[in-house]
Automatic annotation (TrEMBL), chains A, B:
Record's protein name: Beta-N-acetylhexosaminidase
Domain of life of the native organism: Bacteria
Assigned keywords, A-Z: Glycosidase, Hydrolase
Domain Glycoside hydrolase family 20 catalytic: 164-474
Gene3D superfamilies in alphabetical order: Chitobiase/beta-hexosaminidase domain 2-like (3.30.379.10), Glycosidases (3.20.20.80)
One protein family per Pfam: Glyco_hydro_20
Domain Beta-hexosaminidase bacterial type N-terminal residues, every copy: 27-160
Family named by the database record: Belongs to the glycosyl hydrolase 20 family.
Annotated signal sequence range: none
Length: 678, 678
C-alpha cells in the first residue's frame, strides 16, 4: 500500500538558490582580494582542455587533472579526452591555461597569490607558485555558472592573496578517532576554501593515535586499536601537501597524557593503575618533570614523530595541567621548593625549557597553547591562544608569535556569524604594525568529545568556511547576510567533495525514526540545535567514548538556517507589518503547531526519539501561542493578561532542553507574544 | 526569503514501516532454517551485557564488542559500562549469553550454524564455531523490536544454517577502483546478510590494483595510481576474516590483460604500444602462451599474490579471449598447428594446463570462468558460471565443482525478484544428489563499468540481500512479496552500517539540481531506472574510465519501489475497481502530470539535467493520458478511437530513453489506456 503524505503534509525545504541565472563571481568564498567582473562568458564544452605553461611540477599536474574530473562531474560534460593533464598539455589556446613560475614550498608565508582572468575564449591563471595556481583552480570551480546555453566561466579579473599566512583547522582525532578517509575529505574541504594548515591533535587521555615503532605499547595498549599506521600518516601528509596544506602534529605533554602513561606508567608523577580515560574533561595524570629518564623518552618519541611530519612546527600542547599530581607528590614538591618554584606553573615552565632543546634538536619549531607562555619562555616558540583575546594580544605585545583559536571553537555549536566577526587584529586591540606581524593567523578547533566520524563533518562545515574567509579575505569583507548567502552555496560545493555535513542527516533520521518517512522528525530537527558551549555533557559526566552519538542531539546541527531566517522575518514584520510576511510567519507557525501529532506517531516505533517528545510538544504549544498572537496583532486587538501570563509560561517551558537540544524559535515567537500585549 | 513548497507541492515518501508495533522476528533476512516465535520479551536497557562461555576467541570478543556498540547506536541506550566484551565477561546471567565450542576456520564448508533462543530474561546463542555465533549476533540485531515500554528482543527459538557453503559477492575494483573504506562497508553489509565470500576482481584491461613488490611496474605504470598497497590488502583480508568472510582474489589471464601488458609488454602475443584501456569491453590483447618466459613470470606473480590472500582459492579469470591476437600471429599459429590445436580455445586449455601446476605450487585451488572448462581440464578446479544455467549444469554433470553467477549479475539493473527466483539447483535441472553436492553456491557480480565508489553501494544493495537469502535460506522460502517487504527493512539495517545505497541520492540530486530543493527531480527519479543489461553503454562506445558518473542515470537506481507498487495497484484496480485504489492511482498520476512544470524550473539552473527533459515531458503527457483513461473507466464511458491512437503514440514515445534512463510506469498506464478503450 502506498501512503502519500504529499497532499496532507509536505517536507519543507529552504530554497536558497533562486530561479534566476546566477553569476557565481558574486558567490565566491573566500572573497578574493580584488575582483572585477565583466559580461564575457567563456563556454565549457567537450573540447575544454587544461594546459600548463612555465615551470609546472607533479603536484600541479595532479591538481589540474583533479580539476578536469571535478569540472566534468559538476557539469556532466564528458572531458574524457583529457584523462590527465601532463607536460605535453601546453597548448597556449587551451580553454584553461595555467602559468606558474615555480613549485611552492610547504612553509609558513609561502607565496599563495594568483591572478585569474577570463575572456570569451580563455581562462588564464597566473601564479608565482603552484600553490597559488591551485587556489586559482578552486576559485575557477566556484565560478562555474550556467544559462540557457549551458555552462560557462563568467568574465572576471581577479587578483587574490591571503590576509594571514596560517589558516588552520585543528582536527582532534584523540578523543574520538577519525579514519583516514574522514581526514582526506576534510582536507578537500579545507583546500576548497583555501585553508592551509591541518593541525592534528593526535593524543590525549583517551588514546594515542599514531603507530610508534620505538614505543609500540603506545598503539598496543593506549589506542583501543584506533590509530594511524605510519603509512597512514605518510598518506595523509602527502594528500594534504598535494593540496598545498601543511600538517602540524600535536603531541600533548605534560598533562592530558593518561594514554601515554597507560603505556609507560613509569613516567607518571603518581603511581597508579593507569588505563585509558573513557570520560572527557580535565584530569590529574601528568608526567613527572623531575624524572630524568623522562627526557630521553620524550626525545626519542618526538624524534620519531618528527620524522613522520615534515612540517617545521610541532605542537606540544601544554594545556590544562591541574597541577594536583605535582603538588601532592612529596619528591616533586621538594623539587619545586629546592628550585624556588612558587607554583606548579613554574614547574611546567621548567619542563617546557627542558623540552624546547629536544624539539629544536628534531629540527622543529615548538608551539603550544596559552599555558606555555610563562615568564622565561624563549621567543622562538609560537603560542596558540584559546583562553581569550586578551591573552592573545598579551602574547604578541610581549613579542611572541601567535595564532588565534579563541572565538574559533567550532565544537561549541555557535553560529558562523559569531566566528565570522572574530577578527584576529581588530582596531580595538590597538596593536602596532610590528605586533600585527606577529599574528600569524588562526585555527578553527574541532574538538571531538561530542562528535564521531559520522557527525564530524556537520560540526566543521559549512561554518569553518566563514572562518576561512575571515583569515583569507580583506578585513573589510564582513557583511554577515552576504556571508550566509554565499555560505549556502559554498556548502553545496563542499558537499560535491564528498563531505557529509548535509548528507549524514537523512540516514541518521531514518535510523532514528526507524522509517523511510522522516518528515515529522525533520520539521523538529530543523528548529533545534544541540546544547551549546559545554552544556551538552553535563559537566563532563554524561558521555564517554562508548556513548551512542546517534541521537537527536547528533542529527541536530549548529547554526540552523530556518530559525535564523524566521527570526529575521519576525523582526521585519514587527518593524513593518506586511501581508506577505504575515502569511509566511503564519504558515510556519501552523506547520510547527501541527507537527506534534505526526511526531507522536513516529515515536510509537522509535523509543530512541522519546527524549524529544517534550521539545515537540513545546514547539506545538509555542507555535499555537504565536498564532494567537499573530491573530491579535492582525486584528489590532490587545491580548488579555491571563493569556499573556499563560503564554509566557509556555515560552519559559519551551526554553527547556530535551534530548540535549533546545528549540531555536523561542525568541521570535516570544517577540510576537509580547507585541500582541502592547 | 523562505519559500515553502509545503502547501503547494510536497515530497512523496514511500512509507514501508507501518505504524503498528513490529515484531522483527518476521522480518529476518535471510530467513532462518527454523524459526518459532513466542510472546516473551527480553528487555534491553542500560544494564544489558554480553557474556561469552565455552571456548571464545579474539574474533568473537571483537565481534561481540562491535555488537554492543551497534545495539547502543541503534537504540540510543548507553551501554558504556561494557566498552569491550572480554574473557572476564562470563556471567551466566548476562542478558546476551554466547556459547561457542571452537574457533571457526575460514574455509569452504566450515560449520556456520547457530541456535538462538530468547526468554524474558536472556538471549542465548549457541554455536559450534564463532563464525556461527557471529551469524547469530547479526540475527539478534535484526530482531530488535520496540513497544510502548522501549526496546526488546522478541521471544524466538531459532536453528539456522546455510543451504550453500559459497555465498559470494564479486566486487570489480579493476574497471573502476574502489577505495578500502568502500570495500569495508560492503563487507559489513555482506556479514549482515550472512554472505561469506568476497571475490575481488583485481585486474583487467583498465588497471592492476594490487601493489607488487616483485613486479612494481604493475602499480607504477598500470594502475593510474589507483591500487591497494599490500598493507591495504592485509587490512581488507583481516577485516573480512573478522566477519567470517573469505577473500578470493581474481587475477585474470590470459586475456583482459592490457594492464599487465602495459607494464610488461614482452609477454604479449602481438608487439604493440600497450597503454591502459580506457573503454570497457572485450579487447584483443592477450598473453603469449608460447613464450616460455611467461610461466616463470606468472609463477612469481601468483606466488607473491598468493602470499597476500590466505584463502585456499585463487581465480584466474580465463574469460573473453577473442583469440584474434593468437590466430593472427605467425609463431603462435605455427605452435597451434605443431601441437594439433584446432582453435584458440585449445591453446587456452594448453595455457591453463601450464598454469594449473603453478597455482597448485602456491598451495591454492584454481578457479575460473566458464571458458576454462574445456576437454582435458583436471577435476580439482572450480568453474564459475556466467554464460547460462545450461553451461552451469553441464559442468557439474561432468563432475566439476561449480558456483553460479549467471542470473546474479547485479550490474545489469534487473530487479531483486529476477535474481531471487534464480535457484542454483531447481528441480527442472534434474540433477542427482551427487551433482547437487558439486554446486557450491553462487556469487552476485558487481562489475564496475558503470559504477564508481559514489554509486556502487546502490547497485549492490539492497538487491544482493535477496541473493544472499536465496543462497542461505531453504529453497522453499520464495515468496516475492514477502521478500520485498523484508528487503525494505533490511535496506534500512544495511544503511545503519554506513552503506550509501540510499544516502548517496540526495547529495547527488542536490548537485544535479544545483539546489537544496530536489523535489521535482526526485519525483522523476523515483519513476525511472538506468537502461538495463548492456544498453546504457551503447555497445561499449559511450563511456570510459574518465566519464562523469554523476548524472541522471547514476542517481536513478535499479528496482524502483514506486513503479512496482503502482503497477500492482493498477492490476488490482483493473481486476476489481475500488474507490480507494482509484484515488491512489489518481493522486500519483496527478503528481506526475504536474511535475514537469516544476522540473522545467529546475532545468533553468541545471543544464546537466536537460538530458532528462524529454523523460519529464513524456511522464507528464503519459500521466495526463492515464488520468483521462481513469476518468473514462470511472464514468464507464469508452474512449474514442482518435484519443486511443493519440494516447498510444504517447505511450510509444514514453518508452524512449532519456539521459540513459527509461520510465518505469509506462506499462501500468498503458493498461489503463487500453482498459478505457474496452
Amino acid at each position: 500500500m502506498i501512503r502519500k503524505s504529499i497532499l496532507l503534509f509536505g517536507l519543507m525545504v529552504l530554497v536558497v538558490m533562486g530561479d534566476a541565472q546566477v553569476n557565481n563571481a558574486f558567490s565566491l568564498m573566500p572573497v578574493p582580494s580584488q575582483l572585477e567582473t565583466n559580461s564575457k562568458k567563456c563556454r565549457i564544452n567537450e573540447g575544454t582542455r587544461v594546459a600548463v605553461k612555465g615551470h609546472p611540477d607533479a603536484r600541479l599536474f595532479a591538481e589540474a587533472s583533479r580539476f578536469v574530473r571535478r569540472l566534468s562531474n559538476k557539469t556532466g560534460i564528458f572531458l574524457d579526452k583529457q584523462g590527465f593533464v601532463a607536460a605535453s598539455d601546453s597548448n597556449e589556446h587551451a580553454l584553461v591555461l595555467i602559468n606558474v613560475q615555480r613549485q611552492g614550498n610547504l612553509k609558513l608565508g609561502e607565496d599563495e597569490s594568483y591572478n585569474l582572468a577570463t575572456n570569451e575564449n580563455q581562462v588564464v591563471i597566473t601564479a608565482n607558485t603552484d600553490i597559488g595556481a591551485i587556489h586559482g583552480l578552486e576559485t575557477l570551480l566556484q565560478l562555474v555558472s550556467s544559462d540557457e546555453n549551458g555552462y560557462y566561466f563568467p568574465g572576471v579579473t581577479i587578483f587574490d592573496e591571503p590576509r594571514f599566512a596560517w589558516r588552520g583547522l585543528l582536527l582532534d582525532v584523540a578523543l574520538h578517532f577519525m579514519p583516514v578517509d574522514v581526514v582526506k575529505r576534510n582536507l578537500d574541504g579545507m583546500a576548497a576554501v583555501k585553508m592551509n594548515v591541518l593541525h592534528m591533535h593526535l593524543c590525549n587521555d583517551q588514546g594515542f593515535r599514531v603507530e610508534s615503532k620505538v614505543f609500540p605499547r603506545l598503539q598496543k595498549v593506549a589506542s583501543d586499536g584506533q590509530y594511524y599506521t605510519q603509512e597512514d600518516i605518510k598518506e595523509i601528509v602527502a594528500y594534504a601537501g598535494q593540496r598545498g596544506i601543511r600538517v602540524v602534529p600535536e603531541f600533548v605533554v605534560p598533562a592530558h597524557t593518561t594514554a601515554i602513561l597507560t603505556a609507560y606508567p613509569e613516567f607518571a608523577s603518581v603511581k597508579r593503575d593507569y588505563t585509558l580515560q573513557r570520560y572527557f574533561g580535565v584530569f590529574n595524570p601528568v608526567m613527572d618533570p623531575t624524572n630524568e629518564k623522562l627526557y630521553p623518552f620524550l626525545e626519542k618519541l618526538y624524534t620519531e614523530m618528527a620524522s613522520l611530519f615534515p612540517d617545521a612546527y610541532v605542537h606540544i600542547g601544554g594545556d590544562e595541567n591541574t597541577g594536583k599530581d605535582w603538588e601532592s607528590t612529596p619528591h616533586i614538591k621538594s623539587f619545586m621548593q629546592a628550585h624556588g618554584m612558587k607554583n606548579y606553573m613554574a614547574l611546567q615552565t621548567y619542563f617546557n625549557q627542558r623540552l624546547l632543546p629536544i624539539i629544536r634538536k628534531t629540527g622543529k619549531i615548538m608551539m603550544g597553547w596559552d599555558e606555555i607562555f610563562q615568564p622565561g619562555v624563549p621567543k622562538d616558540i609560537v603560542i596558540q591562544s584559546w583562553r581569550g583575546n586578551e591573552a592573545f594580544y598579551n602574547s604578541v605585545k610581549q613579542g611572541y608569535k601567535a595564532i588565534l583559536s579563541y572565538g574559533y571553537y567550532i565544537d561549541l555549536i555557535q553560529p558562523a556569524s559569531y566566528h565570522y566577526v572574530n577578527d584576529p587584529t581588530p582596531d580595538s586591540a590597538r596593536l602596532t604594525g610590528e605586533q600585527k606581524k606577529l599574528i600569524l593567523g588562526g585555527e578553527a578547533t574541532m574538538w571531538s568529545e561530542m562528535v564521531t566520524a559520522e557527525t564530524v563533518d556537520s560540526r566543521i562545515w559549512p561554518r569553518t568556511a566563514a572562518i576561512a574567509e575571515r583569515l583569507w579575505s580583506p578585513a573589510t569583507v564582513n557583511n554577515i547576510d552576504d556571508m550566509y548567502r554565499r555560505l549556502n552555496i559554498t556548502s553545496l560545493n563542499l558537499e560535491a567533495l564528498g563531505l557529509q555535513h548535509i548528507a549524514y542527516k537523512q540516514p541518521m533520521m531514518r535510523q532514528l525514526a526507524n522509517s523511510y518517512d522522516t518528515k515529522a522528525l525533520e520539521v523538529l530537527v530543523n528548529v533545534i540545535e544541540p546544547l551549546k558551549i559545554y552544556e551538552r555533557n553535563q559537566g563532563d559526566t554524561m558521555y564517554t567514548v562508548f556513548s551512542p552519538f546517534t541521537k537527536l542531539a547528533d542529527v541536530a546541527t549548529p547554526d540552523q538556517e530556518l530559525p535564523r531566517v524566521f527570526n529575521k522575518q519576525v523582526d521585519s514584520f514587527l518593524a513593518k507589518p506586511s501581508p506577505e510576511l504575515e502569511k509566511n510567519i503564519w504558515e510556519w507557525l501552523t506547520v510547527w503547531k501541527n507537527n506534534d501529532v505526526q511526531f507522536k506517531i513516529v515515536l510509537r516505533n522509535a523509543p530512541v526519539l522519546r527524549e524529544g517528545a517534550g521539545l515537540s510538544e513545546n514547539l506545538s504549544l509555542l507555535a499555537s501561542a504565536g498564532l494567537d498572537a499573530l491573530q491579535h496583532i492582525h486584528d489590532k486587538q490587545k491580548v488579555n493578561a491571563d493569556w499573556l501570563k499563560q503564554s509566557l509560561t509556555i515560552v519559559a517551558a519551551a526554553r527547556q532542553q530535551g534530548g540535549r537540544c533546545e528549540l531555536q524559535v523561542v525568541d521570535p515567537i516570544e517577540k510576537l507574544i509580547k507585541q500582541a500585549a502592547e
